[in-house]
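Journal club side-thread
Mid-discussion, someone asked how the predicted structure for our own chain would compare to the paper's figures. Pasting it here so we can look after the session.
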Amino acid sequence: MGRLAWPVRPLPDGRGEVWRWDLGAVAELPGARADLRARLDGVGLGAGGDEDQAADRLILAFDELASNALRHGRSPVSATVVAGSGGWLLDVSDRDPHTMPAPAVDRDPAQGGMGLYLVARLSVAHGWYVDGSCKHVWACLPAAQDVSHPAVA
């Protein structure tokens, strides 16, 4: 995956229940993840099986995009999940509209920086766009996924 692998794309039209977290620091992520897990459990996605794996993938993508925004963007950071019938639309925004998401290139994976690659593999579509003074990085994650043939958008 090269530099242009995280494409500039508008946010898809997401319809469903909207969950939102306003984050100011990386230290707030464990609480946000726990809240997301509780919300997923509340809609019946904690019983195991494929749906539970899909919930785990959403939480992982949420954590990766939110931590990237908190570490490399400008606060405040907003993370929004739209829970639709076929999956989730995850949108994370920060106040640094001049810096695009940049997947690590030629880096030892042990040094980190693989989060955007991971989210791209977990999602059926992904992208970013600028809206006024905010950069938005988004991904669409299915409620169920054939992990033997992961989507690469």
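Post-session note: The chain has three helices and five strands.
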